[in-house]
Design a protein that fits this description.
The chain is an alpha+beta fold and 303 residues long. 46% of the residues lie in helices and 16% in strands. The protein folds into two domains: 178 residues, Jelly Rolls; 108 residues, Homeodomain-like (Arc Repressor Mutant, subunit A, Orthogonal Bundle). The protein has a five-stranded antiparallel sheet. Strands 2-7-4-5 form a four-stranded antiparallel sheet. Helix 3 runs antiparallel to helix 4, helix 5 crosses helix 7 and helix 6 packs across helix 7.
Length: 303
């Protein structure tokens, strides 16, 4: 067993597992959809009949609504958006959602390689909202929302007709959309960032990339060249949670993904998330999830 790799689904595998009638989204059951796809949310949402347990995003997803509401869990937080709002799930993040939302809009999925130009430069670099610590909800004013909707309709028409045959055109529309979102994102962000917010953002990014091997607050403080006490004050003042709680909740979230996506034993999952003591892992899981790891897995199977 690879103790560091978290299983993920391709777009095709995800749809075939969770949609009773995946043929309803036939255009997404192709290899290209792992790289990019766009679909009206009113075409996709009604097809989901069960709650989606935690899964990991293999690319970035942008959900933009024109009417109604949508709820989604990203990491340990829950979000609800309405018309003229975008919700971003970044590549590598854990997400889940419940069925039943009534809405219209667009769901656009893309990997970073779609944004690679002819020079090989990653055009996603300027967009902080595509980083792990970025605020996932972006509110657009009426004018910007209109521009964003036009770009999404152009992407939908292009993908529906040609898929990725004219990738440069898809990239151009997508980058224009991201720049529109970025302008709204930057305008709504508090400026300048306080030292506490900047340190907390760096801490979140480190937890996202080092969780399998690093669980001690002091180790993260060392990487940030500050004292553990200073890190605790910063993270608590910005998020309302201690760094230790952030780390514990992240461990449990990773474990939920593995309990859902794999048949590994609880001991193997504990090792995969960096906990050598399976008994301690079970106690930690129940502390934050309210059930044991096996109870969580059984609940998924029953659903």
């Amino acid at each position: 067993m690879n103790s560091t790799a978290i299983p993920t689904y391709s777009t095709e595998g995800y749809l075939r597992k969770f949609l009773p009638e995946p043929a309803g989204l036939q255009q997404l059951l192709v290899a290209e959809a792992a790289q990019f796809f766009i679909v009206p949310v009113e075409q996709m949402y009604p097809l989901f009949r069960q709650a989606l347990p935690p899964a990991r995003a293999t690319g970035h997803t942008c959900l933009y609504l024109t009417t109604g509401t949508a709820r989604m869990n990203i990491g340990t937080e829950s979000y609800t958006i309405g018309p003229h709002e975008a919700l971003l799930v970044r590549a590598g993040q854990v997400y889940s959602f419940q069925p039943g939302d009534v809405n219209t809009g667009f769901l656009c999925h893309f990997r970073d390689d779609v944004l690679l130009g002819s020079t090989g430069n990653n055009e996603a670099a300027p967009f902080d909202f595509l980083r792990f610590w970025g605020q996932p909800v972006i509110q657009l004013d009426a004018e910007t929302g209109q521009f964003a909707e036009q770009l999404l309709r152009r992407l939908l028409a292009e993908y529906g007709t040609h898929q990725l045959r004219y990738l440069d055109l898809v990239r151009a529309y997508l980058l224009a959309l991201l720049h529109e979102l970025n302008r709204a994102y930057v305008a709504s962000a508090p400026a300048p960032l306080t030292t506490a917010v900047a340190l907390t953002n760096r801490f979140k990014q480190l937890v996202a990339t080092s969780l399998a091997t690093t669980h001690r607050v002091s180790d993260y403080a060392d990487q940030l060249h500050i004292t553990p006490n200073h890190l605790s004050k910063c993270v608590r003042s910005v998020t309302g949670k201690s760094p230790a709680r952030w780390i514990e909740e992240s461990i449990v979230l990773e474990a939920k993904v593995l309990l859902f996506q794999s048949k590994w034993s609880v001991g193997d999952i504990a090792l995969a998330v960096g906990v050598a003591d399976a008994s301690y892992f079970s106690r930690l899981f129940k502390k934050h999830a309210g059930v044991t790891p096996l109870g969580f897995r059984k609940g998924i199977e029953l659903s």
